[in-house]
Amino acid sequence: MSTINRAFGFTLIELLTVMTIIGILAAISYPSYTEYVLRAKRTDGKVALLKAQLAEEKWRANNTLYGTLTDIDPNNALQNEYYQITISDISDKTYTVNADPTFTDTKCGTLGINQDSEKTIAGTDSVKNCWGK
What we know:
The protein is of the alpha+beta class. The protein has one domain: Glycoprotein, Type 4 Pilin (2-Layer Sandwich), CATH 3.30.700. The chain has helices spanning 12-62, 69-72, 127-132; strands spanning 83-88, 96-101, 111-114, 119-121. A 4-stranded antiparallel beta sheet has the order 1-2-3-4. A hairpin with a 4-residue loop joins β3 and β4 (119-121).
């Protein structure tokens, strides 16, 4: 009786083929993943802006003019790790709340909202794309 010795394993070509397929899948999925992460960070900024807007309206209901960031947020609850919240153009009738990103965001940049809920951005994309998603 003769026995046949067969080696079990993968050839170099098979390994290279699998590695190529994995590389192609990674190259396709990475841009989608980074865009998803950016959108999630923008959501944090939009939430902080809307909370600041609500706090401004509460402050204005009890005072004669809109408040500073210290007035409406004494405990720094509006600040988060992705955006620095600031308030400008404060008067008895106007204010603008801005969220400056602490990361690079060329599409939307600084997000803003004022007392009339007019939304702004400082990036290269449209306001609809940055605020709508």
